[in-house]
User: What shape does this take?
Amino acid sequence: MRPGSILRGVALALTVMLTAGQAGAASPDEAAQFIRDLGTEAIDNLADMELSEQEREARFQKMLNEGFAMKEISRFVLGRYWRVASPEEQESFRKTLQQVLADRFAPMFTNYGKNDFKVLKGQDDPSNPKLYMVTTRIKDPTSGNMVTAKWRVQHKDGDFAIVDVKAEGVSMAITLRSEYNSVIQRNDGSVAALIDKMQEALNRDSGEGSDASEG
Amino acid sequence: MHTRRSTQLARGLIAALLALTLSACASQEPDSADGDLFQYQEPNDPLEEVNRGIFTFNRGVDTVLLKPAARGYDQIPAGFRDIIGNFLNHISLPVVLVNDVAQGEWNRAEDSFARLFVNTFTLGLGDMVPERHPYHAEDFGQTMAVHGVDDGFYLVLPLLGPSTARDGAGMVADIFLTPWTYVDNTTTFSISTTALDGIRRRHAALGRLEELERDSVDFYARLRSLYYQRRQLKIDNQIESGPDIAGSRSTASAR
Assistant: This one.
């Protein structure tokens, strides 16, 4: 092959790579706008105090599907057990995890106002070049204080999706992975046992919730 | 008396060195490439069964003693709670100051020195120091971490809660850095203030600990993870070591 054609080949490859990079690229500001839009949508959809708990969770589940990378989160949280789980168990785990997240996060937005969710900045994720990190201040529903929450966001196939949230420095994904892996290990590597326990916790929680509302 | 104190100090240092050696042997490995991307490390918990037993015991103590005491503490007017908090912060400052210096944190050492000097005029009950010198906590476990000592394995200590080999050794070292360790007849004072600080920390976690347990499937593992994550933030000075959920020494807990 002549040197000229090698150079043309390299130039062509570089052009393709650069073009592909630009097509897939997004900016930290766009990631921040994605979180801002999602927060506004959450407040608009979930803050209404007249909503029933079921309706609030159903709306939040829809947002989870749209705004969270549920498959990636599920795969990360299960860790090495994702590979040993059957496709049915993987799907069942994903759905149950979605319920757990809805159960935990949906009530947070009750009675939220516009000032209770502020996007401060978007930046490249310092610990992972494939992700963006968006810093927000949100109201802690337990204490009523404003706390820092950092959203780790991926940009894939032209869409943003949340892969993790760090509230006051504590990662949701890491905490869940540690806890769920512990349960699986203590149940002889059974992912089904974990799903059962997650379901039990959900039932227990909704039972306590209805007890409290009856009381 | 001098000989007895020297012996105590020597024993403490030997315990600290032993724990340091153990922790250096027991480093944590990243789980996988996936885990590495998310900065995930498997918990190093070779004493898990024993730790779980102590965790259960601590939870019993929490239910019977600590939580009711924290609720009682909540009934004290906020102004008096501030005075108690000022005093407890103040008496911790000699240890904090030594650890600031040992970490080469000169600005933080200046904050601690200013607070120690000025607030001594109020016997530690008031806070006359400008906001530009905020209180912060430091301990010898953090100092060792700053100097590259690995946290070793996970430990749940009776009554004191989550810790690690390194941080447990740090607690022993901090006892020897506390001035009144070397003053006669101060045992009651030390125990009382430690207990009061435990109640204050549990008070700060009221509601939040229960909220954490609400949807948990393994509360021990959840608190262990929270302890490790919060501890690293404290070592990096990204959050202060004041009363909080997972760092609460006297809560039942702990990757």
